[in-house]
Each structure stands twice: as structure tokens, then as C-alpha cells.
What does this fold into?
Amino acid sequence: MTSEQIKQLLNDAFKPELLEILDNSAAHAGHAGARSGGGHYHVTIVAEAFEGKSLVQRHQLVYKALGDMMKQQIHALGINALSPSEETTGSL
It folds into this structure.
């Protein structure tokens, strides 16, 4: 299952304090990306690795961790990547 693969890869890469993965693929049935097998997901992740990083850098780290999954298994990915200090200040 793709959600479980995403979870495993992100846990391995970041050892996050919080990781939530929503699979929104069913809402996009019939969409061109869905027809080719790619799912629609949203990830909320809180990890020390994001401290001091820009939004673009955080997304790049997540994409790198997911590697080849971004080529076919994941068609769309929403990312909410926070550092622990941001999460405790209510930025979630």
C-alpha cells in the first residue's frame, strides 16, 4: 500500500515527532494522474531536519526521501513540513 511505503520512507529519513498521511486518491478517481496509477496524498510532518530550512528546501528533502515513488506512485503530494519549534508554537 502506497501510504505505508510513504510512511516507512519518511520515518526512515526524518525520525519525525509527528507524521500524518492522508490518502485523497478516491476523491480524484478518473483524473489523468489516477488513471496512470498515481495517488493523491497529503503529508504533515514535524521533524528536526526542517529547522532553519526554507519551504522549498523542506519540500526538496521530502521529495528526495520519497525518491522514485514521485515518478509514478504519487501523482500529487501536499506537504506541511514543520520543525518542532514551529509545531509547538501552534503553526500546525
